[in-house]
Amino acid sequence: MAFKGMLKDEDIAAALQHCAAADSFNHKEFFAKVGLAGKSTEDLKKAFYFVDQDKSGFIEEDELKLFLQTFSAGARALTDKETKVFLAAGDADGDGMIGVDEFAAMIKG
């Protein structure tokens, strides 16, 4: 598991359960429940690179759609609506992607 040692398995399970239904994902609630909200900027940058599957230095829409699967392979994909809301929340510069600093700011914000 990518977040081993950074996050607690029980927090991940609870956060995933909370947003198991389609269109129930709220990034602020998820970050708080999974335990990312209280992490250091350094830890948030590590988390970013787990989500940045193609190692491009940005999290693109297709990677956001599979965001929950970063935490558990059996988790659902985000709906198109959830993905677009999530992207809009994190994409501070409007380039259609979330950079590492934008990711950290979104979680801390």
TrEMBL record:
Record's keyword annotation contains Aminoacyl-tRNA synthetase: no
Keyword flag Secreted: no
Keyword line: Calcium, Metal-binding, Muscle protein, Repeat
InterPro entries named among the record's database cross-references: EF-hand-dom_pair (IPR011992), EF_Hand_1_Ca_BS (IPR018247), EF_hand_dom (IPR002048), Parvalbumin (IPR008080)
GO MF term list: calcium ion binding
The EF-hand domain, residue ranges: 39-74
Residues reported to bind Ca(2+) 1: 52, 54, 56, 58, 63
A cellular component annotation (GO) from this entry: cytoplasm
Binding site for Ca(2+) 2: 91, 93, 95, 102
Pfam families assigned to the protein according to its UniProt record, in alphabetical order: EF-hand_7 (PF13499)
Function field: In muscle, parvalbumin is thought to be involved in relaxation after contraction. It binds two calcium ions.
Family in the record: Belongs to the parvalbumin family.
Stated name of the protein: Parvalbumin
Naturally occurring in which organism (per UniProt): Oncorhynchus kisutch
Upper taxonomic lineage: Eukaryota, Metazoa, Chordata, Craniata, Vertebrata
Chain's gene name: LOC109870296
